[in-house]
Amino acid sequence: MKIHTRNKVISIGIIILAVIAAGVWAYAAFVAKRTEPVTQQPNVDSSQAAPDSQESVKPEGKYAELTGDAFDEIYIADMLAHHEGAVNMAEQAQAVTAHEEIRTMAAEITYAQSVEMFNMTEWQKAWGYDPTMGEGHNSHGGDGTTMAGDMVEMQNELKDLTGEAYDKEFLKQMILHHQQAVEMSENAATNAKHQEVKDLAEAVIRDQTSEIAQMKQWQKDWGYQ
Q1: How far is CA 59 from the centre of its chain?
Q2: Rounded (5°) CA angle 62-197-205
Q3: CA angle (73 as vertex; 71, 74 as ends), nearest 5
Q4: d(Cα 216, Cα 224) in Å, to the nearest integer?
Q5: What pLDDT, in 10s, does the model give residues 173-218?
Q6: Helix (H, G, I), strand (E, B) or coil at 56
Q7: Is 97 in contact with 166 (CB distance < 8 Å)?
Q8: Is the pLDDT of residue 83 over 70?
Q9: Is residue 119 within 8 Å of 200, Cβ to Cβ?
Q10: CA 206, 211, 217, 223 torsion-angle sign
């Protein structure tokens, strides 16, 4: 009887020790997890996680960084390519448009911008700038090449269109085209060296802003929006 009681006591003691050991192990594991070094994640500003395409610097924004001859030379090269694209689009519009209003505006664009192109090529000669006209779009060097490429892309949007379909796309593309010219010209008053360039930029802003308003009105009147 005594032996049975002693064995029972020993068994109970073993169980108690096992429970205590399990508790100690669990507590040790808990402490180890609490004290485990945490790998810090990089502190990423959500506003900088990915570039916002709407805030990307526009090509036209480069003119804000240019002054003097540097501004005038690049502005003229780009505006020559830009005007050439407008004249090409306007000449095409006179042949295929369904609206006399567009035909009239296209004729005015062709005349006014052809005169300005002539003046700009004369300024390039007089001021010692590299010529960028005379052999089509591929002749535009430097920044003029990029601008010429943009103009070709706009003209490609009008390819094979006629009538109302053409007019709808023409107004869309010419509005974008004019808006680009206005943006290109905004810094000329302060950054250009020659008064001739300042006067040209002022005329571009005035005339093409007016034409943008007229074309947007036509979009509403003709149900293109």
Answers
A1: 7
A2: 75
A3: 70
A4: 9
A5: 999 999 999 999 999 999 999 999 999 999 999 999 999 999 999 9
A6: coil
A7: yes
A8: yes
A9: yes
A10: negative
Nearest in space to 93 (alpha carbons), one of 83, 78, 103, 81? 103
Residue type, 222: W
Amino acid 30: pLDDT:
39
- Return the ∠ at Cα 67 (arms to 66 and 68), rounded to 5°: 140
Query: What mean pLDDT value characterizes the chain?
Result: 77
Report the distance separating Cα 136 and Cα 120, nearest Å.
16
CATH match for 60-221 among 1.20.1260.10, 3.40.1010.10, 3.40.309.10, 1.20.1250.20: 1.20.1260.10
How many angstroms separate the CA atoms of 30 and 171, rounded? 71
Q: Which two tokens stand for residue 108?
A: 């005015």
Give the burial class of 163: count Cβ atoms within 10 A of its Cβ; 0-12 exposed, 13-18 middle, 19 or more buried.
Answer: exposed
Alpha-carbon distance of 70 to 141, in angstroms, equals 14
90: left (phi over 0), alpha (psi -120 to 50) or beta: alpha
10-68 pLDDT tens trace: 444 444 444 444 443 344 343 344 444 434 433 434 333 333 333 334 556 789 999 99
Domain ranges of the chain: 60-221
Fill in the DSSP letter of residue 50.
S
Half-sphere exposure of 1 (CA within 13 A, CB side): 0
For tokens 């002022």, the residue is 202
